[in-house]
Specification:
Helices cover about 30% and strands about 25% of the residues. With about 475 residues, the protein is an alpha/beta fold. The chain has 3 domains: about 5-150 and about 275-340, 3-Layer(bba) Sandwich (FAD/NAD(P)-binding domain); about 165-275, FAD/NAD(P)-binding domain (3-Layer(bba) Sandwich), CATH 3.50.50; about 350-460, Enolase-like, domain 1 (2-Layer Sandwich). α7 links the parallel β12 and β13. The radius of gyration is 24 Å and the shape is globular. Bound molecules: flavin-adenine dinucleotide (FAD).
Length: about 475
C-alpha cells in the first residue's frame, strides 16, 4: 500500500492549496478529487469549475456588452448592431476555466503532489495512519485533510432539474432566457441575475428575508439596491414561496408577498439559497467522523476533527463560504502540521460581490460595531468627487470607513462602486496590522486613482476630507 504524509480529500481552493503548501514544506502529499467537467477530471473544485471563476468570466463579458450598448455613446463611440454570440461567450468562459484547472494540475506535478481522480473515503485507522480508499486504491496517510466543500442547497418545493437550475446550470444556459426567476438575493443570486439581465433577460429576484444584503453595512446595501433596481433587476423581499411547478416550456412559481398570493411564470429558475456542506461518499458515518447539526464537519481551532490525524478545512467546516477563506485555512493547516504557527485572522476576511457597481467590505459594519458597545466614528466619500471615476464615467457609490472613536483603529471598511473588489485589498492589509484611520489617511495614494476615495474616506472620519 502506498503511504503519504498528507492525503487531501477534495481538490478545491481549500484542498489544492493545502496540498501545495504541505508539499512545499517537505511532506509527501497526495490529493484525491472527484470533480469532473465534460467527463474529465478537473481540479479546482466548485470555485474554479462552476463558481468564482466562470461566474466572473460571464460577469465580465456581459458587462462589456452592456457598456457597448449603453455607455459607449457617452464616450463618443458609436457602435451599431452589437449582439451576443452566446456560444462564443460560453466558450471563452470555458477556456478560462480550462486554463486555471489545468494550472492546478501543473502545480501538482511541479510540487510532486500525487493526484487521484475519483472519490476519497476514510476506511480505517491503521498503525501507519489512516487508510483511505483513493479512487479505488487503498493508500495510507499520517494526516488526512477533509476538504470536500459544499453543494447548492435545494429548495424542497423546487428540486433541481429541467428548467430549475443551480449555479452550474445557470452558467451554461444555451439561450438567454426571456424571463428569468431567481430565488435568493444573496451574492450568487445577484451576480448570476446581473449576468443574464445584461444579456437581455427580464430578471425577477425573490427573497425570503425582509431586506437586501443584511450582512453588509446598511448604507452600502441601500445604495447597491438602488443601483440594481435602476438597472431593471426586479426584487421582491419578504416573499414566501408556496408552490413551484414546471412543464416543457418553463416554471410557474406561486408566492406570498405582503399577504397577497402572486403567480409568476419564468423560462428558467435559478435557486440560489445558500450552500450545504458536502460529506457524501466520504465514509464519515462508518468511521465516526463527527458532524454538527447542520452537517458541517466539527473542528477545533486547529482544524482537528474528533478523529486523531483527520483534519477539515474550507466550506465543509462552515464559516464564510469563500474561496480565499478556504485557501488560507489550507495554508494555516499545512503549516501547523509542519510544526509552524498556522493562523487565519477571521476578523479581516474581505467579502466581495462582483456586480456593477461592485460591493466589498471587511470587518465590522457601523451597526455591528455599535452593537458591540464600541464608540464609533465614520467617514464616507463618494466616487462622484473623484477624477478617475469621472474619467471612467462611473461615479456610483462610495467608500465608508468605520473606526474606533477612542483609538482611531479601523474597525471596518465598506465600499460600493467601481473596482472596489481591488480597492478593498489595501484596507485589509492595514487592518491586518491593526492600523488606524490616520494610517490610511496619511498613506500616499497615486493620483488620479480610484484609491484616493479610500484615503478621503479615512480623512472624513476626522472631518478632514480634502475634496468635498
Ligand atoms: P470546493 O471548491 O467545493 O471543493 C471541494 C472539492 O471536493 C470538489 O472538487 C468536490 O468534487 C470534491 N469532493 C467532495 N467530496 C469528495 C470525496 N469524497 N472524494 C473526492 N473528492 C470529493 N468564493 C469567493 O471567494 N469568491 C467568489 O467570487 C465566489 N463566487 C462563487 C460563485 C458561485 C456561483 C459559487 C457556487 C461559489 C462561489 N464562491 C466564491 C464560493 C467558493 O466557490 C467556495 O467557497 C470554495 O470553492 C470552497 O472551496 P473548498 O475547497 O472548501 O470546496
Amino acid at each position: 500500500m502506498d503511504s503519504y504524509d498528507v492525503l487531501v480529500i477534495g481538490g478545491g481552493p481549500a484542498g489544492y492549496v493545502a496540498a501545495i503548501r504541505a508539499a512545499q514544506l517537505g511532506f509527501q502529499v497526495a490529493c484525491v478529487d472527484a470533480f469532473e467537467r465534460g467527463g474529465k477530471a478537473s481540479l479546482g473544485g466548485t470555485c474554479l469549475n462552476v463558481g468564482c471563476i466562470p461566474s466572473k468570466a460571464m460577469l465580465d463579458s456581459s458587462e462589456r456588452f452592456e457598456m457597448i450598448q449603453h455607455e459607449a455613446g457617452e464616450h463618443g463611440i458609436e457602435v451599431d448592431g452589437a449582439r451576443v454570440d452566446l456560444g462564443k461567450m460560453l466558450g471563452r468562459k470555458d477556456s478560462v476555466v480550462d486554463k486555471l484547472t489545468g494550472g492546478v494540475a501543473y502545480l501538482f506535478k511541479k510540487n510532486k503532489v500525487k493526484s487521484f481522480h475519483g472519490l476519497g473515503r476514510l476506511v480505517r485507522q491503521d498503525e501507519g495512519g489512516w487508510v483511505v480508499d483513493a479512487a479505488g486504491t487503498e493508500v495510507v496517510a499520517r494526516h488526512v485533510i477533509v476538504a470536500t466543500g459544499s453543494s447548492p442547497r435545494e429548495l424542497p418545493l423546487a428540486p433541481f432539474g429541467g428548467h430549475i437550475v443551480e449555479n452550474s446550470g445557470a452558467l451554461a444556459f444555451t439561450q438567454v432566457p426571456q424571463k428569468l426567476g431567481v430565488i435568493g438575493a444573496g451574492v450568487i443570486g445577484v451576480e448570476l441575475g446581473s449576468v443574464w439581465r445584461r444579456l437581455g433577460a427580464q430578471v425577477t429576484i425573490l427573497e425570503a428575508l425582509p431586506s437586501f444584503l443584511m450582512a453588509a453595512d446598511d448604507a452600502v446595501s441601500k445604495e447597491a439596491l438602488k443601483q440594481f433596481q435602476k438597472q431593471g433587476l426586479d426584487f421582491h423581499f419578504g416573499v414566501q414561496i408556496s408552490a413551484v411547478t414546471q412543464d416543457e416550456s418553463g416554471v410557474s412559481v406561486t408566492y406570498t408577498e405582503k399577504e397577497q398570493e402572486v403567480s409568476a411564470r419564468f423560462d428558467k429558475l435559478i435557486v440560489s439559497i445558500g450552500r450545504v456542506p458536502h460529506t457524501a461518499g466520504l465514509g464519515a458515518e462508518a468511521v465516526g467522523l463527527e458532524l454538527d447539526e447542520r452537517g458541517f464537519v466539527k473542528v477545533d481551532g486547529h482544524y482537528r476533527t474528533n478523529l486523531p490525524g483527520v483534519y477539515a478545512i474550507g466550506d465543509v467546516i462552515g464559516g464564510a463560504m469563500l474561496a480565499h477563506k478556504a485557501e488560507e485555512e489550507g495554508v494555516a493547516l499545512a503549516e501547523t502540521l509542519a510544526g509552524q504557527a498556522g493562523h487565519v485572522n477571521y476578523d479581516v476576511v474581505p467579502w466581495v460581490i462582483y456586480t456593477s457597481p461592485e460591493i466589498a467590505w471587511a470587518g465590522l459594519t457601523e451597526k455591528g460595531a455599535k452593537e458591540q458597545g464600541l464608540n464609533v466614528k465614520t467617514g464616507q466619500f463618494p466616487f462622484s468627487a473623484n477624477g478617475r471615476a469621472l474619467g471612467h464615467n462611473d461615479t456610483r457609490g462610495f467608500v465608508k470607513v468605520v473606526a474606533d472613536a477612542n483609538t482611531d483603529k479601523i474597525l471596518g471598511v465598506h465600499m460600493v462602486g467601481p473596482n472596489v473588489s481591488e480597492l478593498i485589498g489595501e484596507t485589509v492589509a492595514i487592518m491586518e496590522f491593526g492600523g488606524s484611520a490616520e494610517d490610511l489617511a496619511r498613506t500616499v495614494h497615486a493620483h488620479p486613482t480610484l484609491s484616493e476615495v479610500v484615503k478621503e474616506a479615512a480623512l472624513a472620519t476626522d472631518k478632514r476630507a480634502l475634496h468635498m
